[in-house]
Amino acid sequence: MLTDPVLLIEILSPSNQAKTWANIWAYTSIPSVQEILVLRADRIGAELLRRSPQGEWPARPVPVSGELMLDSIGFRTNLTELYRGTRLTS
Fold first, then answer.
1. 7-12 vs 62-64, strand pairing mode
2. Which residues contact 71 (CB under 8 A, 6 or more apart)?
3. What is the DSSP track for 54-89?
4. pLDDT digit of tens for each residue in the chain (90 aa)?
5. Nearest to 69 by CA among 50, 84, 51
6. With a threshold of 0.85, does the pTM exceed it?
7. Coil/strand/helix, residue 7
8. How many angstroms separate the Cα of 65 from the Cα of each of 3, 19, 50?
9. Residue 44 has what pLDDT?
10. Residue 1 to residues 4, 8, 15, 36, 78, Cα–Cα distance (Å)
11. CA–CA distance, 13 with 17 (Å, rounded to integer)
């Protein structure tokens, strides 16, 4: 476990969506967290919550398609690369 994380990644499965989203919103209370990435387990897809420079969180997550940029760690990739080697890619 890391102290003062800047990025949290959650895998969202169809069976635990409601419970998981409650946990995800709770993560926004961690002062060091700048981004929360939610990856779908049932399809290629993701949503991103990013804290604004003023310290505020958006009202809802932003869907990610195509290129994924994680500013908190200086990481950029195509979203499909995160699913390479899974049953979701052909």
1. unpaired
2. 34, 35, 50
3. TSPPPSSPEEE-SEEEETTTTEEEEGGGGGTTSTT-
4. 678 999 999 998 888 777 788 888 999 999 999 999 999 999 999 999 999 999 999 999 999 989 999 999 999 999 999 999 998 875
5. 50
6. yes
7. strand
8. 30, 24, 16
9. 93
10. 10, 11, 26, 16, 27
11. 6
Collect contacts of 38-43 with beta carbons under 8 A, ≥24 apart: 38/9, 38/10, 38/12, 39/9, 39/10, 39/11, 39/12, 39/82, 40/12, 41/11, 41/12, 41/13, 41/14, 42/13, 42/14, 43/88
Tokens of 71: 């500013």
Burial class (CB within 10 angstroms; exposed 0-12, middle 13-18, buried 19+) of 34: buried
Residues linked to residue 49 through DSSP beta bridges, in sequence order = 36
